[in-house]
């Protein structure tokens, strides 16, 4: 997810800030962010955090990290459905969880759901864990790991804007940078004895196809898939893969250069065709 800069989005944030203290804290942050933008882009050494209470949750986020905008996407614009709401034994895979907003929303809908939040970036992951604790969320398991088409180690390309971080296979003969552990959806679900998934949400900045390639078995028992794609090519590739597993496109929202796609399996059909 990308940080919103349009005035209407900033107005949403101000409206969502809970109480005068929170509104003043948000104003202070937005002013600091605007000043920081004039001084140049943030770098990876920027680790300052803020904690502000919004109407839907108490939120810890990194300054100039792009993380705050996800609150509007999840809670205000409602880019994702409440997948866990009507299912007693719901299982949610939040792949690319960042600081945990989608997981928090699903946990608030159903305290009995089992939610697994995967985030490889260590800074975002620490805030993910903190946000779960701040909001008393106990049914989300945070996993500091990438999800890909094969397990092992992946190169992590991450700056201060954690929402734009991405993983890729390291070059042969060396990584040339930091690496993170990776697991496939199928391996994780087999080890965790997960037989059916209510929703697989994927927001991994370009690696969506790789995630799906590592989820061939799990997709056969998955009810919904929600994917963010940042190019027409990824949108077509994602749709093509899911159509092989009898998923139909229920809805899509285009936000600039991003598509939020929601798929559901056709009733009574299991497995790829």
Please identify the top-level CATH class of the domain at 76-265. Answer: Alpha Beta
Uncertain residue segments: 1-5, 269-273
Mean pLDDT: 88
CATH homologous superfamily identity of the domain at 76-265: Vaccinia Virus protein VP39
Distance between the termini: 32 Å
* Strands, total number: 13
> Any idea what the radius of gyration is?
18 Å
Order of neighbouring strands in the sheet with most strands? 5-4-3-10-11-13-12
Counted by DSSP, the helix tally is: 9
Short description:
With 273 residues, this protein is α/β, with parallel strands linked by helices.
Please give a structural write-up.
By secondary structure, the protein is an alpha/beta fold. It has a domain at 76-265: Vaccinia Virus protein VP39 (Rossmann fold, 3-Layer(aba) Sandwich). Helix content is 33%, strand content 26%. The protein contains nine helices and 13 strands. The chain has helices at 7-16, 19-39, 69-76, 101-109, 122-134, 185-191, 208-213, 216-219, 232-244, and strands at 49-53, 58-62, 91-95, 114-118, 140-143, 146-147, 152-157, 166-168, 179-183, 197-202, 222-229, 247-255, 258-265. The strands form three sheets. The protein has a seven-stranded mixed β-sheet, with helices on both faces. Strands 6-9-7-8 form a four-stranded mixed β-sheet. A two-stranded antiparallel ribbon has the order 1-2. The protein is globular, with a radius of gyration of 18 Å. The two termini are 32 Å apart. The model is unreliable at 1-5 and 269-273 (pLDDT under 50).
